[in-house]
Amino acid sequence: MSSSPHDPSRRAAFAAVGAAGAGLVLTLPGCAKTPKDDDESQPDTTAVEDLMREHGILRRLIFVYRETAAMIRKAPTSLDLAALGQAAGLFRTFGEDYHERSLEEAHVFPMVKTSGGRASSLIDTLVAQHNRGRQITDFVAARAKVGSLGDSGPLADALESFARMYEIHSALEDTVVFEAWKALLGRKELNRWADIFEDIERATFKGDGFDLALEQVSSIEQRLGLGSLAAFTAPVPPAA
Ligand SMILES: [Fe+2]
Ligand SMILES: [Fe+2]
Asked: Are 163 and 62 in contact (CB under 8 A)?
Protein backbone atom coordinates (compact mmCIF):
# COMPACT_ATOMS: atom_id res chain seq x y z
CA MET A 1 0.00 0.00 0.00
CA SER A 2 1.41 3.35 -0.98
CA SER A 3 2.04 5.93 1.73
CA SER A 4 1.38 8.78 -0.69
CA PRO A 5 -0.72 11.66 0.66
CA HIS A 6 -2.81 11.21 -2.48
CA ASP A 7 -4.05 7.78 -1.40
CA PRO A 8 -7.79 8.15 -0.72
CA SER A 9 -7.59 7.34 2.99
CA ARG A 10 -4.45 9.42 3.43
CA ARG A 11 -5.94 12.29 1.48
CA ALA A 12 -8.94 12.40 3.81
CA ALA A 13 -6.65 12.29 6.83
CA PHE A 14 -4.46 15.09 5.42
CA ALA A 15 -7.55 17.24 4.81
CA ALA A 16 -8.72 16.66 8.38
CA VAL A 17 -5.30 17.37 9.89
CA GLY A 18 -5.03 20.53 7.75
CA ALA A 19 -8.40 21.80 8.90
CA ALA A 20 -7.67 20.99 12.53
CA GLY A 21 -4.26 22.63 12.23
CA ALA A 22 -5.92 25.78 10.96
CA GLY A 23 -8.00 25.86 14.13
CA LEU A 24 -11.27 24.93 12.46
CA VAL A 25 -13.90 23.32 14.69
CA LEU A 26 -17.22 21.93 13.50
CA THR A 27 -19.83 22.79 16.09
CA LEU A 28 -22.98 20.69 16.18
CA PRO A 29 -25.88 21.20 18.61
CA GLY A 30 -24.77 19.84 21.94
CA CYS A 31 -21.21 18.98 20.97
CA ALA A 32 -18.01 20.33 19.46
CA LYS A 33 -15.97 18.05 17.26
CA THR A 34 -12.99 18.45 15.02
CA PRO A 35 -12.84 16.98 11.51
CA LYS A 36 -10.18 14.64 12.86
CA ASP A 37 -12.89 12.92 14.94
CA ASP A 38 -14.87 11.92 11.88
CA ASP A 39 -12.62 11.34 8.87
CA GLU A 40 -15.38 9.64 6.89
CA SER A 41 -17.30 12.92 6.75
CA GLN A 42 -14.40 14.57 4.91
CA PRO A 43 -14.34 14.48 1.12
CA ASP A 44 -11.38 12.74 -0.52
CA THR A 45 -9.08 14.74 -2.76
CA THR A 46 -10.00 13.51 -6.20
CA ALA A 47 -8.19 13.79 -9.50
CA VAL A 48 -10.55 16.68 -10.37
CA GLU A 49 -9.49 18.57 -7.26
CA ASP A 50 -5.87 18.02 -8.25
CA LEU A 51 -6.56 19.49 -11.71
CA MET A 52 -8.43 22.45 -10.25
CA ARG A 53 -5.73 23.34 -7.73
CA GLU A 54 -3.24 23.22 -10.60
CA HIS A 55 -5.49 25.77 -12.30
CA GLY A 56 -5.02 27.84 -9.13
CA ILE A 57 -1.27 28.00 -9.78
CA LEU A 58 -1.89 28.85 -13.46
CA ARG A 59 -4.42 31.56 -12.56
CA ARG A 60 -1.79 33.15 -10.31
CA LEU A 61 0.59 33.20 -13.28
CA ILE A 62 -2.16 34.68 -15.43
CA PHE A 63 -2.60 37.37 -12.78
CA VAL A 64 1.16 38.01 -12.99
CA TYR A 65 0.82 38.34 -16.77
CA ARG A 66 -2.06 40.82 -16.51
CA GLU A 67 -0.31 42.95 -13.91
CA THR A 68 2.97 42.80 -15.83
CA ALA A 69 1.24 43.95 -19.01
CA ALA A 70 -0.17 46.93 -17.07
CA MET A 71 3.34 47.74 -15.72
CA ILE A 72 4.81 47.54 -19.22
CA ARG A 73 2.25 50.04 -20.50
CA LYS A 74 2.69 52.37 -17.51
CA ALA A 75 6.36 52.25 -16.46
CA PRO A 76 8.28 49.77 -18.61
CA THR A 77 11.74 50.62 -17.25
CA SER A 78 10.86 49.42 -13.74
CA LEU A 79 9.87 45.91 -14.83
CA ASP A 80 11.83 42.90 -13.54
CA LEU A 81 12.04 41.07 -16.87
CA ALA A 82 13.87 38.11 -15.34
CA ALA A 83 10.88 37.50 -13.03
CA LEU A 84 8.56 37.58 -16.04
CA GLY A 85 10.86 35.04 -17.73
CA GLN A 86 10.61 32.84 -14.64
CA ALA A 87 6.80 33.05 -14.84
CA ALA A 88 6.88 31.94 -18.49
CA GLY A 89 9.25 29.09 -17.56
CA LEU A 90 6.90 27.89 -14.81
CA PHE A 91 3.93 28.09 -17.16
CA ARG A 92 5.88 25.91 -19.61
CA THR A 93 6.98 23.20 -17.16
CA PHE A 94 4.00 23.06 -14.80
CA GLY A 95 1.18 24.30 -17.04
CA GLU A 96 1.97 23.18 -20.55
CA ASP A 97 4.23 20.14 -20.21
CA TYR A 98 2.65 18.64 -17.09
CA HIS A 99 -0.95 19.82 -16.57
CA GLU A 100 -1.94 20.20 -20.25
CA ARG A 101 0.05 17.50 -22.04
CA SER A 102 0.64 14.81 -19.44
CA LEU A 103 -2.79 14.97 -17.77
CA GLU A 104 -5.43 16.71 -19.90
CA GLU A 105 -4.34 15.75 -23.41
CA ALA A 106 -3.04 12.30 -22.51
CA HIS A 107 -5.90 11.17 -20.25
CA VAL A 108 -8.84 13.52 -19.60
CA PHE A 109 -9.59 14.86 -23.08
CA PRO A 110 -9.62 11.51 -24.95
CA MET A 111 -12.23 10.15 -22.52
CA VAL A 112 -14.37 13.30 -22.55
CA LYS A 113 -14.24 13.55 -26.34
CA THR A 114 -16.19 10.31 -26.67
CA SER A 115 -18.85 11.35 -24.15
CA GLY A 116 -20.87 13.65 -26.44
CA GLY A 117 -22.54 16.88 -25.37
CA ARG A 118 -20.94 20.29 -24.87
CA ALA A 119 -17.83 18.99 -23.12
CA SER A 120 -16.75 16.85 -26.06
CA SER A 121 -17.43 19.69 -28.50
CA LEU A 122 -14.92 21.89 -26.61
CA ILE A 123 -11.94 19.54 -26.78
CA ASP A 124 -10.50 20.51 -30.18
CA THR A 125 -10.60 24.20 -29.24
CA LEU A 126 -9.01 23.53 -25.86
CA VAL A 127 -6.12 21.69 -27.55
CA ALA A 128 -5.73 24.49 -30.11
CA GLN A 129 -5.56 26.96 -27.20
CA HIS A 130 -2.87 24.86 -25.48
CA ASN A 131 -0.85 25.09 -28.71
CA ARG A 132 -1.40 28.86 -29.06
CA GLY A 133 -0.37 29.24 -25.42
CA ARG A 134 2.92 27.47 -26.17
CA GLN A 135 3.62 29.93 -28.99
CA ILE A 136 2.97 32.86 -26.64
CA THR A 137 5.13 31.31 -23.91
CA ASP A 138 7.99 30.96 -26.43
CA PHE A 139 7.57 34.63 -27.35
CA VAL A 140 7.45 35.87 -23.73
CA ALA A 141 10.46 33.75 -22.73
CA ALA A 142 12.46 34.98 -25.72
CA ARG A 143 11.67 38.63 -24.97
CA ALA A 144 12.56 38.15 -21.30
CA LYS A 145 15.87 36.52 -22.27
CA VAL A 146 16.89 39.53 -24.38
CA GLY A 147 16.82 41.51 -21.14
CA SER A 148 15.44 44.76 -22.53
CA LEU A 149 11.89 45.57 -23.52
CA GLY A 150 12.47 47.30 -26.83
CA ASP A 151 9.11 47.73 -28.51
CA SER A 152 6.99 46.81 -25.49
CA GLY A 153 3.51 46.98 -27.08
CA PRO A 154 3.55 43.50 -28.67
CA LEU A 155 4.72 41.92 -25.39
CA ALA A 156 1.93 43.61 -23.39
CA ASP A 157 -0.59 42.57 -26.07
CA ALA A 158 0.63 38.95 -25.97
CA LEU A 159 0.42 38.77 -22.16
CA GLU A 160 -3.11 40.19 -22.13
CA SER A 161 -4.37 37.97 -24.94
CA PHE A 162 -2.92 34.91 -23.23
CA ALA A 163 -4.63 35.89 -19.96
CA ARG A 164 -7.95 36.47 -21.69
CA MET A 165 -7.78 33.09 -23.43
CA TYR A 166 -6.71 31.15 -20.35
CA GLU A 167 -9.31 32.63 -18.00
CA ILE A 168 -12.21 31.30 -20.05
CA HIS A 169 -10.25 28.15 -21.02
CA SER A 170 -9.66 27.06 -17.41
CA ALA A 171 -13.15 28.14 -16.29
CA LEU A 172 -14.79 25.93 -18.94
CA GLU A 173 -12.53 23.04 -17.99
CA ASP A 174 -13.50 23.47 -14.33
CA THR A 175 -17.24 23.78 -14.93
CA VAL A 176 -17.90 21.65 -18.03
CA VAL A 177 -15.03 19.34 -19.02
CA PHE A 178 -13.96 18.08 -15.59
CA GLU A 179 -17.61 17.67 -14.59
CA ALA A 180 -18.17 15.48 -17.67
CA TRP A 181 -15.05 13.45 -16.85
CA LYS A 182 -16.23 13.04 -13.25
CA ALA A 183 -19.63 11.83 -14.43
CA LEU A 184 -17.99 9.29 -16.73
CA LEU A 185 -15.74 7.83 -14.05
CA GLY A 186 -17.54 7.84 -10.72
CA ARG A 187 -15.96 8.38 -7.31
CA LYS A 188 -13.94 5.17 -7.00
CA GLU A 189 -12.33 5.57 -10.41
CA LEU A 190 -11.58 9.23 -9.68
CA ASN A 191 -9.65 8.19 -6.61
CA ARG A 192 -7.71 5.68 -8.72
CA TRP A 193 -6.93 8.47 -11.20
CA ALA A 194 -5.70 10.68 -8.36
CA ASP A 195 -3.07 8.03 -7.65
CA ILE A 196 -2.16 7.76 -11.35
CA PHE A 197 -1.79 11.56 -11.54
CA GLU A 198 0.31 11.48 -8.37
CA ASP A 199 2.67 8.96 -9.99
CA ILE A 200 2.96 11.14 -13.12
CA GLU A 201 3.62 14.20 -10.96
CA ARG A 202 6.36 12.51 -8.97
CA ALA A 203 7.96 11.07 -12.12
CA THR A 204 7.89 14.50 -13.79
CA PHE A 205 9.14 16.66 -10.93
CA LYS A 206 11.03 14.08 -8.81
CA GLY A 207 8.92 15.31 -5.89
CA ASP A 208 5.69 17.16 -5.14
CA GLY A 209 5.23 19.27 -8.27
CA PHE A 210 2.38 21.29 -6.79
CA ASP A 211 4.43 22.35 -3.75
CA LEU A 212 7.41 23.23 -5.94
CA ALA A 213 5.21 25.29 -8.27
CA LEU A 214 3.53 27.01 -5.30
CA GLU A 215 6.89 28.06 -3.94
CA GLN A 216 7.98 29.39 -7.32
CA VAL A 217 4.82 31.36 -8.08
CA SER A 218 4.97 32.96 -4.62
CA SER A 219 8.57 34.00 -5.24
CA ILE A 220 7.68 35.46 -8.66
CA GLU A 221 4.82 37.47 -7.13
CA GLN A 222 7.15 38.84 -4.44
CA ARG A 223 9.78 39.86 -6.98
CA LEU A 224 7.20 41.76 -9.01
CA GLY A 225 5.66 43.48 -5.96
CA LEU A 226 2.45 41.44 -6.26
CA GLY A 227 2.71 39.55 -2.97
CA SER A 228 0.09 41.41 -0.92
CA LEU A 229 -3.48 40.21 -1.36
CA ALA A 230 -4.80 43.29 0.48
CA ALA A 231 -3.28 45.56 -2.19
CA PHE A 232 -5.83 44.20 -4.65
CA THR A 233 -8.99 44.84 -2.65
CA ALA A 234 -11.21 46.92 -4.89
CA PRO A 235 -11.80 50.57 -3.89
CA VAL A 236 -15.14 51.67 -2.46
CA PRO A 237 -17.43 52.56 -5.39
CA PRO A 238 -18.74 56.12 -5.74
CA ALA A 239 -22.13 56.88 -4.27
CA ALA A 240 -24.94 55.82 -6.63
FE1 LIG B 1 -6.41 23.00 -20.76
FE1 LIG C 1 -6.48 22.82 -17.47
From this structure: yes
